[in-house]
Amino acid sequence: MAAYGSVLRSDGGRQRPERLENLKGLRTALYGCATRRADAWFELVDALLVTERLVSLPHLSLEPVHRRGHGSLYAALSHGQVQAERLREVLAAHLPAGPPVFAVDPTVWPRCDAECSPGRGFYYHPSRHSAGQPIVAGWCYQLIVGLELARNSWTAPVDVRRLAPDDNINLVAAGQIRGLLDRLPAAATVQDHQQLPLVVFDGGFDPVQLQVELAGAPVQVLVRIRSDRNFYAAGHPRRDGRPGRPARHGAKLSLTDPATWPAPMATWQEADPQYGQVTVTAWGGLHPKQRTYRDADGHLRIVPGTLVRVQVARLPGRSRAPKTLWLWWAGPPGIAPELPLVWRAYVRRFDIEHTIRFGSRPCTGPCPGLARPSRPTGSPGPWRLAMPSCAWPARSSPIFACLGSNRSHPTS
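The structure assignment produced for this chain is given below.
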């Protein structure tokens, strides 16, 4: 994000001067977040941003933007201090233009051999296995980034939290989102669905728990759900006239049985250059069965929301037939989902994977002095110190021009 807005436009033209002024203002505010070893920390962030291959900490000191000796890198990590809340406020004030859309996703830092490290848990990993299972031991971090709807891989990281092994990712995400809403400019949280923040989650999150924990907050929630779930319409009185408690669940909607689908609330169609014909269908007033929350009378709570179905004609770069995408949308009362924004926001959610990849680049060389078990418990890890200031792609010539004219002291 330190280079956000400084890259060339899609048409090959240069960015407007005010965009570069915004970039300079961001770097100045970022420098002000460091209260100890600010110069060393700031140059470490720049070196992480522009390096092509992360070999070791001394290797970073060879980058042109790093003007200090390699010992300052260890000093910045061991003795430097960064005001986390101030940093979150700075990042929330420098978000991409357009609708406020965010993505939330956890990422794991594998530490399979660090058996004595405190706070280490077992987590799912898509590419690494242990005993034949996609599970690794390590530390888990939950990241929130701002998204652009344009076709690029840029993101604006705004928050990252370390997860304990016994943490509930849904509760932690709800707390992160509420904190983000407090830091956003007032214009981004007005009660208007055009500007109401939309937060996108992939599968693995509980849509009901997120919706309940964020009840009353000016935010929209969009969660991918499994394609074999069942939902129900609102309950109704007994139709046979007999006395008794009204039915709590109405007609059943099975995602696997189109015969049970009622008439949709809204439908949107458009032709997309990447996905072909896109059809988005929404059904409102549905609820799943859940066993987590109860009403004051002891009955299980009915949590209604909107079910969204996305069907595309093709997948970019894939020959296999696309599957149907099912999403769960929830928002404040009186707000309906904007279907063109909903499906495109979920597609852009995958940009967070590039940010995670950039921030998770392994160090292939030794990192003496950073393997103490006490360090990761109180900080996001050596390479994630630069997460708020990075985006993808980070390697481009305008970045070097900006860094060369605005280095360790951004105000100079």
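Interim note for the steering committee: The CA atoms of residues 98 and 404 lie 30 Å apart. The longest helix spans residues 17-32.
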